[in-house]
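Morning. Coffee machine broken again, so started the prediction first thing and wrote up yesterday's gels while waiting. Chain of 68 residues, entered below exactly as on the submission form.
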Amino acid sequence: MAEQGSSGNVIAALCSLVIPGLGQLVQGRIMPAVVFFILGGVLWFFTLGTAGWIANVIACIEAARHKS
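Came back before lunch.
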């Protein structure tokens, strides 16, 4: 898709910041999207949102640094 720092990766990073895994899905990477979505959901549920932000930030950084 796009190289690191491109507008596609910025959009994907912003998507992952809102919903973990959405940025990876925008980039067309299904398995990482599913993993981040499940991990984020589990962390949000069991920690009542406290640790859920960790999954969002990690997914955001990973989507931003992805090289095709």
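The longest helix spans residues 30-46. Going to sketch it on the whiteboard this afternoon.
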